[in-house]
Amino acid sequence: MKRRNFLVRSSLFSAGTVLLPSFSFASETSQRFGVQLYSFRDEMAKNPLGTLEQIASIGIKEIESAKSSKGHYYGLSPKSMKQACEDLGLKLVSGHVHLDSDFDRTMEEAAASGQDYLICSSMPSDGQTIENYKKVAEEFNKAGEACQKMGIKFGYHNHEYEFESDQGKVLYDVLMDHTDPALVHMELDLGWVVVAGKDPLDYFKKYPGRFPLWHLKDMNMTEKESTEFGKGGLDIQAMMNHQEASGVKHILIEQEEYASTPLESMKHNMDFLNNL
């Protein structure tokens, strides 16, 4: 190789070694984080559009709605909610609902809103037994099939009580073992898992790829209530390091108790994530 060509190629290689790490870092830090709107429940009830604007202003890109006294969309129609999100650069990815007699209407609303998931927010069970959890699993499979026909994905959000045991078997595991992964998509609330004395990483290993949604929630382990990131018992860094194993696609922050206001707490949480 002639000396001049060698020097040119060497310069290009050196430039590449400087630029590539910056490009890599930019890709890693562009992750989209969302929020469960129950975190802003009072504010959404009073002023949904203004609250959504505040949420978007701190860098949140995705939202999950929750059933309220004004319906699933805080007094807005499903189409109005969709438009408001589009105007603010937000994506309505999911909604917490009940599996009840109005579920057909709930599915129709979800389809109109453009959201991807409907998440049952609490256990419709008659008791903490293996038999009852098997019955619920069957109900979830049927709900998942109905949602699938409408282009929506059905799922379930846990609390801590699902990790109680009956006859030596953890009830959440019964639910996992008897639901069809193609029909029932789990939203794992990481905070409630650790409050129940379990490790989310164990569930990522036991049921790889089964958790397309997370509730990222730090927990005060003494009071058993949510707190700002870094102040509780959840190892958030470890969770973020094992996203691939869990199959997560949407990381939704939820906080129900606050040091000051929901907005200030959420700013803290976003800063915490951006500094990991």
Core attributes:
disordered N terminus; alpha/beta; TIM Barrel; 8-stranded parallel beta barrel; 276 residues; two-stranded antiparallel sheet; globular; Xyl_isomerase-like_sf; 46% helix; 2 domains
Architecture overview:
This protein has 276 residues and is an alpha/beta fold. The chain folds into two domains: 30 residues; 243 residues, TIM Barrel, CATH 3.20.20. It is 46% helix and 18% strand. It has twelve helices and twelve strands. The protein has an eight-stranded parallel beta barrel, surrounded by four helices. Strand 10 and strand 11 form a beta hairpin. The protein is globular. The N terminus is likely disordered.
Say which CATH homologous superfamily of the largest domain is assigned. Answer: Divalent-metal-dependent TIM barrel enzymes
Number of strands: 12
The count of domains is 2
Please provide the ordered H/E string of secondary-structure elements. HEHHEHEHEHEEEHEHHEEEHHEH
Structural class assignment = alpha/beta
Walk across the major sheet and give the strand order: 1-2-3-4-5-8-9-12
Which consecutive residue ranges, at least 5 long each, have pLDDT under 50? Answer: 1-29
Q: Approximately how much helix is present in the residues?
A: 40-55%
Indicate the CATH topology of the largest domain: TIM Barrel
Strand-residue proportion: 15-25%
Q: What is the overall number of helices?
A: 12
| pLDDT averaged residue by residue | 91
User: How big is the Rg?
Assistant: 21 Å
In CATH, the architecture of the largest domain is Alpha-Beta Barrel
Shape: globular
The major pleated sheet works out as: 8 strands, parallel, barrel
Query: CATH first level of the largest domain: which class?
Result: Alpha Beta
Distance between the termini: 45 Å
